[in-house]
Amino acid sequence: MNGYGGHILRVDLTNGKWTKEQTPADVARDFLGGRGFGIYFLTREVPKGADPLGPDNKLIISSGPLSGLMIPGAGKCDFTTKSPLTGGYASASLGGHFTAEIKYAGLDSIILEGVSPKPVYLFIDDDKIELRAASDLWGKGTIEVEKHFKDKFGEEFQVAVIGQGGENGVLFACINHDYGREAGRGGVGAVMGVKKVKAIVIRGTKSIPVADVEKYRQAGMALYKACKEADFLAEWTRYGTTVVTSWCDEVGALPTRNFSAGSFEGGKSLYGPVMREKIVITDKGCFGCPCPCGKYSRSKKYSLEVEGPEYETIGMMGSNLGIADIEAVAKLNLICDDLGIDTISAGSLIGWAMECYEKGILTKEDTGGLDLKFGNAEAAFELAEKIAMKEGFGALLAQGVKKAAAKVGKGSEKFAIHVKGMEQSAYATHNATAMLLAYMTSDVGAHHNRSWAITYDLQVGRERVAPDKVARIIWLQNFRPMFDVLGACRLQWVELGIDRDLYVPALEAITGIKRTWEELEKVGDRIWNLTRLYWVREIDGFGREWDLPAPRFYEDAPTTGVTKGQITKVEDVHKLLDMYYEQRGWSPEGLPTPETIDNLGLKAFAA
Amino acid sequence: MTATLRASSGIKDYLGGKPEVTISAGRTVRETLVDLGIPPEVIALVIVNGEARDKEYVILDGDAIRVMAVIGGG
Hints:
heterodimer, A: alpha+beta, six-stranded mixed sheet, B: mainly beta, five-stranded mixed sheet, 5 strands, 11% helix
């Protein structure tokens, strides 16, 4: 099948066996790959009500039809599972070089099933596939383990590895790769940990079949040319995602002290140019990327080197904790990466705990002696480690902010910043109604990668609640995640602004099937609705209540910064949902209607 | 006393589709953006002669200014 590795690898960890099957052509036609394959296999194969940390859950790792090919940023890999953090759908995206090797090994997806009785790693060298003992690696950090495998097998092998966070079942544990890239969100690392899989080590040497090699070469070159000629290639390469730090501060979108404000008085010390000057030593890109957004940094103060920090980590572990020191953020970044926990969720948890502490809801007795004032970087370092190791107070936070707040109570639920149990990523949304809706309706919880619309809010009026804003979010939700389906990075479109139509001839030349963006958006719509049906299936009473944002964004206006006194009215929150459900073809409670299900060819999944 | 201003692809509509316009020196980048009808808050990055500057930078004769909006997002 052109554009595909051609096989699905199933690894039965309970019995230590594996099987391969041909990638189903109809699934490739309707769901294409990546997160499309993920939700298809999750819905089909993981039984309703499965314990996310039990043997029935599966970890589905998928490349896409562009992955591993000469397309800018075609290094994206999707990790789908039932989320232990939210109880619903989880899909985490990983950059780097891992997904290319999946394709070169003749695979499209690797599905980890069951639970291994002992720690193992999965070794794949083309058709040589083995589960090997990893007891000696259990308890070690991601960086040491990745280096171990690189030293042992060579640089050609790519490694996806969990740290102690995944081993210990931290509900927002991530899967790490390339010493600083993560499949970060939703607890995919905890699922890998409970399955006792420390790492996947993979190399492939096979060719990927392509329908029309000459047209593929031309289309690929056109994409690279567009990237190379993009207006701001040099700046995106120089600063990466940290381009937006100063801008977020300026427009009130920089999460500050647990999202109590959107501007930080110490923000300047975290800005991209300051970071570049102070700690960045080189740039680092993913497979096939012409605009390497990764920054590799060295902190003299803490004697460390780390990939990052990128914007999300700066927002969540810098301003959100009241820390105005980019080197301290770099240290927190390294702690989380090495121990294998998501910096966004960890930053949210520590910020929430700091607010509890400053309000007297938690005391030193509760925190194990930690003085959790905002700005106390040393306390944050210690707490991040305790979370990953589930030690003392850290064990409470390891459950995620929704569960931790439910246990602590005393009003702390009001400033637990999450949707559907997933901690909100690093954009404050006190007065940005389209972006607020993007978080409310994201299909994994409060994450920004599905749709992002703050500039749109600024252009059309940030308080406005109108159908065009809702339509914009729906269009983005159908379109943007298609990059995670195709197995390529969206940042060439997001950052460099290259024409998305350039991908159309490339996809046709590779797969031999012509698909316009309209058709691709229809696939995106189908996937979006299937993820919604998954939530409906797994959560009793799922509906509107699950789409509500943190009360902070409609009850608790900032008292400082550029959004001081600004807030979204609760009635507008519901108006947004009313319009969203109507435009999506969902019921007033947010459930896809039979007509919508039928129109998208999802009848077989709705039972 | 003039300079040039170039906008990123997502906001060229504010310049009537033109990639670059001639502007007057002596005013700040923020004031100039307002003059051109570009909401200053949508601009994430200001580059003057290859260096990152803030929107309060006062434009000098001959400056080559580039402004970038984040349209696609994070």
